[in-house]
Amino acid sequence: MTSTAFIKPTPSLPALTERLVDSHCHLDFPDFNGNELAYLDAMESHQVGWALIAGVTLERFSGVLNLVERFPNLYAGVGVHPDTESGEEPTVATLVRLANHPKVVAIGETGLDYFRLTGDLTWQRDRFRTHIRAAKDTGKPLIIHTRDSAEDTLKILREENATEVGGVFHCFTETPEVAKAALDLGFHISISGIVTFKNAFQVKAVATMVPIDRLLVETDSPYLAPAPYRGKLNQSAWVRYVAEEVASLRGMTTDNLALATTQNFFKLFIKNEK
Hints:
By secondary structure, the chain is an alpha/beta fold. The protein contains nine helices and eight strands.
């Protein structure tokens, strides 16, 4: 790996270049085990400078920390995914303690998912509230997952005053109306490789209506590989294809889209870095 592969971000946002950020990935997943350096080299070759690994369970979080401690251009979120039914249940105290790590810049991913699970999902809503309260205690933004649950997601965010910390609705697939409601709460919207799919009309519409200063791009790798790699194992390097599609939809250059979304990422997540 070249010595320039890992570039430590600077808090001086105007100095950022056209290098992209993958604002949501899962580089700790078994799909990548033993090949992390190759995937990070691929990021470098695609001018992707940084990535945020979103935690999904407490049991796996040590693996997330191992990666972000090894590589200066990786950051982490700590949380338990809404469709995780077993394992250690997070408490506010546990999340706050783990978020005290200097490379942990967010709480999540968290939220609600009524697509994969059915029945009484009170436990999911309670867990979501726990994450929001931990975010408020730490002052760190939330990474929100919502699927077939937008109404309850927005309701709980309002009830818990999540506007105090804000965050991002990641891998956004909801309607423009839901996007507007999330923006009104002070949240960012992150667009994934779904935007490159031919029939993803709703995601494409959202990608054009979000204010440029509230927009992020991501891969959600290893899932949702963008065209031209749809169906393959996704990776952070391919956030460039997401950015190219979003830039085309918005009538701007990819370099300008990269600069804007990278600035947005650092303003949201790395604002306290010295």
